[in-house]
Amino acid sequence: xxxxxxxxxxxxxxxxxxxxxxxxxxxxxxxxxxxxxxxxxxxxxxxxxxxxxxxxxxxxxxxxxxxxxxxxxxxxxxxxxxxxxxxxxxxxxxxxxxxxxxxxxxxxxxxxxxxxxxxxxxxxxxxxxxxxxxxxxxxxxxxxxxxxxxxxxxxxxxxxxxxxxxxxxxxxxxxxxxxxxxxxxxxxxxxxxxxxxxxxxxxxxxxxxxxxxxxxxxxxxxxxxxxxxxxxxxxxxxxxxxxxxxxxxxxxxxxxxxxxxxxxxxxxxxxxxxxxxxxxxxxxxxxxxxxxxxxxxxxxxxxxxxxxxxxxxxxxxxxxxxxxxxxxxxxxxxxxxxxxxxxxxxxxxxxxxxxxxxxxxxxxxxxxxxxxxxxx
Amino acid sequence: xxxxxxxxxxxxxxxxxxxxxxxxxxxxxxxxxxxxxxxxxxxxxxxxxxxxxxxxxxxxxxxxxxxxxxxxxxxxxxxxxxxxxxxxxxxxxxxxxxxxxxxxxxxxxxxxxxxxxxxxxxxxxxxxxxxxxxxxxxxxxxxxxxxxxxxxxxxxxxxxxxxxxxxxxxxxxxxxxxxxxxxxxxxxxxxxxxxxxxxxxxxxxxxxxxxxxxxxxxxxxxxxxxxxxxxxxxxxxxxxxxxxxxxxxxxxxxxxxxxxxxxxxxxxxxxxxxxxxxxxxxxxxxxxxxxxxxxxxxxxxxxxxxxxxxxxxxxxxxxxxxxxxxxxxxxxxxxxxxxxxxxxxxxxxxxxxxxxxxxxxxxxxxxxxxxxxxxx
Amino acid sequence: xxxxxxxxxxxxxxxxxxxxxxxxxxxxxxxxxxxxxxxxxxxxxxxxxxxxxxxxxxxxxxxxxxxxxxxxxxxxxxxxxxxxxxxxxxxxxxxxxxxxxxxxxxxxxxxxxxxxxxxxxxxxxxxxxxxxxxxxxxxxxxxxxxxxxxxxxxxxxxxxxxxxxxxxxxxxxxxxxxxxxxxxxxxxxxxxxxxxxxxxxxxxxxxxxxxxxxxxxxxxxxxxxxxxxxxxxxxxxxxxxxxxxxxxxxxxxxxxxxxxxxxxxxxxxxxxxxxxxxxxxxxxxxxxxxxxxxxxxxxxxxxxxxxxxxxxxxxxxxxxxxxxxxxxxxxxxxxxxxxxxxxxxxxxxxxxxxxxxxxxxxxxxxxxxxxxxxxx
Amino acid sequence: xxxxxxxxxxxxxxxxxxxxxxxxxxxxxxxxxxxxxxxxxxxxxxxxxxxxxxxxxxxxxxxxxxxxxxxxxxxxxxxxxxxxxxxxxxxxxxxxxxxxxxxxxxxxxxxxxxxxxxxxxxxxxxxxxxxxxxxxxxxxxxxxxxxxxxxxxxxxxxxxxxxxxxxxxxxxxxxxxxxxxxxxxxxxxxxxxxxxxxxxxxxxxxxxxxxxxxxxxxxxxxxxxxxxxxxxxxxxxxxxxxxxxxxxxxxxxxxxxxxxxxxxxxxxxxxxxxxxxxxxxxxxxxxxxxxxxxxxxxxxxxxxxxxxxxxxxxxxxxxxxxxxxxxxxxxxxxxxxxxxxxxxxxxxxxxxxxxxxxxxxxxxxxxxxxxxxxxx
Lengths: 376, 376, 376, 376
Ligand SMILES: [Fe+2]
Ligand SMILES: [Fe+2]
Ligand SMILES: [Fe+2]
Ligand SMILES: [Fe+2]
Ligand SMILES: [Fe+2]
Ligand SMILES: [Fe+2]
Ligand SMILES: [Fe+2]
Ligand SMILES: [Fe+2]
Description:
- The structure is a homotetramer.
- Chain A has helices at residues 23-34, 44-47, 63-76, 79-82, 180-185, 207-212, 236-247, 350-355; strands at 37-39, 60-61, 86-89, 105-111, 120-122, 126-132, 136-140, 143-147, 152-155, 161-165, 172-178, 191-193, 217-219, 233-234, 258-262, 276-282, 291-293, 297-303, 305-310, 313-318, 322-325, 331-335, 342-348, 361-363.
- Chain A has 2 domains: 3-39, no CATH class; 60-369, Sandwich (Jelly Rolls), CATH 2.60.120.
- The longest helix of chain A has 14 residues, at 63-76.
- By secondary structure, the first copy, chain A, is of the alpha+beta class.
- The two termini of chain A are 32 Å apart.
- The interface between A and B is large, with 94 and 94 residues.
- Strand 3 (86-89) of chain C pairs antiparallel with strand 1 (37-39) of chain D, so a sheet runs across the interface.
- The structure holds fe (ii) ion (8 copies).
- Residues 255-256, 291, 293, 331 of chain A line the site of one fe (ii) ion (FE2).
């Protein structure tokens, strides 16, 4: 009956549905539809695939192509009109849910000196990775933080938050990462505007980092019962130093190089319940082997340049470029320099996969671990 | 520009996006689209709703209307062709993802005496609630179990499983509940057919219940490291007795009556990582107050009759009828009898909501806690 | 220098301390003593033994020898004078810390009809195992429970508790088990008398069992944040039935027969933080193999008769007799009947050993797993 | 009958045992003793005290008085004879169990250049705090670490370990802290000598610190299933920097000043199951208020000088002096300098107290929070 018959998902495999359409059956299917029902065998092979088949596609967004558009937003709309001036990244396979990959949203936000956004909170968890400019700050539940290039910052679900740039700063851009699409998919998204639009600074500047950002030490009297990290800002310098130190004592992962996860120092686990983040260093000339994981990843190059091969597609990147790795898709990374290391920041939904017992990983065994390129 | 302009989600609220389309802006939006990007303020109010707005609708499937169709499947297709003869329930708002509500699949399966399905396993978690007939059995990783009316059975993710009806049994029907749509949405679904099509019985019949189904006692030497319950079958008689015993010492919940959760005896938590199940008893004449929860529910009436009001819609039910409560939708339950108790079985995705920190519940405060009916 | 020189723990093993006393060294030792110090090598082999060498000895207390003394207490002292009329069991090796074995206290309490003890609470955790009589009750934080033969009851640390026998009851005896010696050893024991001497009954009688004593079901709305079980009474009938059911599907343990742990239904773990309890059934004629565990055990025979071999000593027991198994001591159990099963109740400190990562178990490999008897 | 009668623990308080000896009762007590039993009311008030009454006494060991004795051990015994050349600290109230306080052992170990101790392992957990000298190292399960002044190092239970000083080093001393007395009290202590006496170096030097000692970052691919910290060495410099940074954003604790716990970065919890450790900074001139805790503490002054008042006794200390705080004893700390901060290292058994649910803390409310001194 062709590709839109009821039998278009048939498979000739024992244990799989394999029912040809007949007039009697099609009548039966129509009867079921009238009852808001259907015959499982007409869709079983579609909804029970042999392995995940994502709708997301591998793609890179070059910052030099986007930057001009992002800055144009400064002139086109005011913060009062727009709420936030953000250019979001739309995966061609996930435009309907406004996702960069899987159920993860990402955008590039821009703010000028002296601007500040209104405070609000939501069920969605958010993170930021600072790209350009000086003087940016954020205030999360009264904890005000100064933000510099390559700093990684949390605004966890349920926290009041507002961002801004100081009067003596410059135009700033940063990458936003959120699980908005997932919260909507799960029918679990709530939103509130702060009753006073702006919240107060309730603690010494950068107190969260001074209190919780010390290696293997924690304040003895502090209690913490939230599900997210009490450490809200992870600065670039100690992160890069940590990778260099780690590089001296380990080979690293064949698939991911020198790969470290940002953690909640209170638990040793991921910084938020639904999103994790990592920084990985590729040694000069390193070309990692391919593997695939259940989970979706948004990458930003933090240092250096190179390319990744994702699902057989080559994605070239340099500092500030953003690219994605969809779930269960082969990927490998290449540092383009023989002299400098390259660093890739990423955020992902592995905490969701692990919380639900769904995480898997598999290395490519053919071709010495390298994917053949697919003609685009 | 009307309902399909870029400005169709504008809200006149401080802190929300409120940007009118202009020719210059529309040009800008087109430029962004060419870069696989967009302006957040054109969609912000849509993707950050004030509260969840589910696509699922409240609906009841009456068993006396479906039963004939279900039995007809016995004649129309063989188990070999169909894999399983199941009529699935399609929520009008979720037909695209084959869900009964939210990301939960449900169907009614039928099997004749002497039939047995081929063994397989998948990432999706499954459960069964036995509706009709005698002689049904299931085999989960070698643990063979006999199944009777209103028994609740697990076939957790990753377990080999097969179902059948003994030669001396009768035609049997049961409700299947699975998280197939969620597994697909998360790009995490894997499927395998058992290499020998049929698995062996590796333990004494019903050993799981004899070993783990004892109140507040567990085998001293047994270790268990799986993420699902070692108890695979929860029988109806002790469940009903438990509710009767509980009824003698408690008022119960104003929203849910005498409400008990099936648990994993190894942890006291939900039986599987992604789905939970409950049985609740309504006393004769009881009319509970309305509340709403983040989470999706599929109900089956196990005993008695009555109706529920879900999102302002009255859904009448009697034994074997199935209905759903979508996420964050007001619901209240009414026992139609003044003399007999009524029992409602349900399964739901609260373990997902709790694992991700998203669960909320709220009682209706107006109108003494009862919803006004909405004209259909 | 003989057995009381400083060198009396010398061992001729490489890596162990092996320093002979000399005049110069003894002077040195005296100098250190004056500074509240000492030389480690004079005691190292003593405080770092090759394996645990307990001071507790295996011993059985025959109820027919103790019962008369216990009942005599009814006449000798009033409850007001004595607080509680209890005969405690003193292990010959642990009389200094009033322990039956290790750091576990046990006693036999007696109460006459119409008597009730005053309410109090303490850091020590307590449990009871009912031996004789009818009409006994206990009230734990307002939860009043009726107690019958072989029922196992908790009075966890920090709970107000009082015991009594109803007017129409008979003289009752029960075994008390507490971790009083451990609490004292850890400098952690607190005690309070109830400000009103008697506490109120705050819930329906036996509500804890009706609410939490149902197999693999828990009240859906109840929250529980205490570190002990919300189920306070474990009745004998369902326990015995569970063992019979379990016996039909398992061989059981070669060392412990049909062995089940009482658990906290809220967690699946031990009922209290510092003490666990078990019931085990020996089939007619069963003679288990010897093993040893890090942990101390107090046993009471609940049904039948037989003997145990503990540290090479034969301990004969019948219903109501109490015996102990010290830590890391070989033990095996023998049912004396070829026709009836025998049941042994026990409580122990395994939760402490497990919480601190110290639990070990080892089966005897020589002599087909049976200990040679040691002449007493 | 005087202080050694059976009634010497009587209390005239309702709810407490208050039975005077009589000839008949004393006969009864003798009868019970013959049965390895006793009457609870003769000991109840002793074994159920109103609050903990520790046998440990507050005491300080001045390093300038001990140092000469410690160094003398270098000449008096060889490492081969002594195993380790250690002077242990004996609390006057706990000499029988070789404890410095409660169930905690502490000693001062000395080693000369080129010496190395034989490798062994035990159930007891151990830690070291480096006092003097250069070139010390330790090897824990193949992880060799270089040790400097004020570094804190773990040798967790069950790990093979050996210590030494390099040929080009100087005489080194360090404080050992162990839970040996607790392991013996719990009948849980095992000991083994390494089959080859010396173990190999299996990893790059100091790899544990490079891998796990980075703030809020952990190696992405590493798994860890041990109950102790994968970070084995906590260096002094970053610890002191952390305290300085923390001091800029907090008042600190009124009882403990700027007080940080060393943690297991894999869990955020204590570094070992049975012992924790802390470093606290007292600001110039700071005099903390008194509080008391369930738990025993061994302190060493790491920087500066001052005194503590423990149980009403003044204990003066300067760098390298060691003192103890027994369980549930009031204590307060005073920095003797108005210009320099002072730092106190401590280790303690709070992880045991917390694991068993026994931790309590209470601030002194009288006298503005300061203890009156008790004449010695
Ligand atoms: Fe936001
Ligand atoms: Fe990867
Ligand atoms: Fe299936
Ligand atoms: Fe509900
Ligand atoms: Fe008590
Ligand atoms: Fe045993
Ligand atoms: Fe050692
Ligand atoms: Fe303190």
